[in-house]
């Protein structure tokens, strides 16, 4: 069966979407735990495409490093990298448990807590405030130098200068 | 009233230039992509006539890897239905591409989806 057909057909399945969600969430918990050194090494590869281009952290930047520290019991470090790390960790853990329950029993227990449209935009507004505050702190904390030297255009310019010098 | 007119009234209007999606994604440090995911979930749910992408998945897929892979998987599942509406029967074949691009460059997946969704309003 072609992969595209499998993806289309899986919309009628109870198990496949849940299995994929479970695999992704387990990955979220296990990757930072198993690859702690790689994740937390200073200057390691930037995985976020937005940060790779702009050098400015996106709303979830630092979450992998925060989870890595959290899972090793380094609470202060975890919160320093991302203040929502404990909340995200608990949320992911709860979702993993509920997904396993759904897969075993065949019953749906995970509901949609944001039924009202206004609730959705309230959460979005919260994320906007968080990102604005985070960006301001980033720039006040020496972020201008990081932005000037590490954004994609600055790096390309440096590369061009290196090639032609 | 024709079926097309009824569909047009039911589906939320969210037409954008795909390049603007990319640009605003970078300029707003990813915040626009979260908004884009929320709006696109509303459009996809309206097209499919079922809540396939819930708001929490849309919000978290806008900023958290690998939830965005799950978002594009859900979009990919329903590309056949979207393809029928936009008159592109081969759209389903792009589901793997969307997921792979969702892994490396989610903005490009967003641009592809936006390009197809724009056809709903033409």
Keywords:
heterodimer, A: about 160 residues, mainly alpha, 9 helices, globular, B: about 120 residues, 8 helices
Descriptive report:
The complex is a heterodimer of chains A (165) and B (122). By secondary structure, chain A is mostly helical. Chain A has helices at 3-9, 15-34, 36-40, 49-54, 63-71, 75-81, 85-105, 117-150, 152-164. The longest helix of chain A has 34 residues, at 117-150. Chain A is globular and about 65 Å long. The termini of chain A are far apart. Chain B has 122 residues and is mostly helical. Chain B is built from 8 helices and no strands. Chain B has helices at residues 3-10, 18-27, 31-48, 55-63, 67-77, 79-86, 95-104, 106-118. The model of chain B has no long low-confidence stretch (mean pLDDT 87). Chain A binds chain B through residues 3-5, 7-8, 10-11, 17, 20-21, 24, 27-28, 47-50, 53-54, 56-60, 63, 88, 112-114, 119-121, 123-124, 127-128, 131, 135, and chain B through 25-26, 29-31, 34-35, 38, 51-52, 54-56, 58-59, 63-67, 69-70, 73-74, 76-80, 92-96, 99, 104-107.
Fold topology:
The complex is a heterodimer of chains A (165) and B (122).
Chain A: H1 3-9, H2 15-34, H3 36-40, H4 49-54, H5 63-71, H6 75-81, H7 85-105, H8 117-150, H9 152-164
Helix pairs in contact in A: 2-5, 2-7, 5-6
Chain B: H1 3-10, H2 18-27, H3 31-48, H4 55-63, H5 67-77, H6 79-86, H7 95-104, H8 106-118
Characterize the biggest β-sheet of chain A. Answer: none
Q: Cα distance, first to last residue of chain B?
A: 19 Å
- The sequence of SSEs of chain A as H and E is HHHHHHHHH
Please, how many helices of chain B?
A: 8
Described by the principal axes of the CA atoms, the overall outline of chain A is: globular
Query: How much helical structure, as a percent, in the residues of chain B?
Result: over 70%
Order of helices and strands of chain B: HHHHHHHH
| Beta fraction of chain B | under 5%
Summarize the biggest pleated sheet of chain B.
none
- Greatest interface by residues involved: A-B, 38 and 39 residues
Distance between the termini of chain A: 54 Å
* DSSP strand count of chain B: 0
- Weakly predicted, low-confidence segments of chain A: none
* Number of contiguous helices of chain A: 9
Q: What is the averaged pLDDT score of chain B?
A: 87
- The number of distinct β-strands of chain A equals 0
**Class computed from helices, strands and strand pairing of chain B:** mainly alpha
Q: Please bin the fraction of helical residues of chain A.
A: over 70%
Uncertain regions spanning at least 5 consecutive residues of chain B: none
Mean pLDDT of chain A: 90
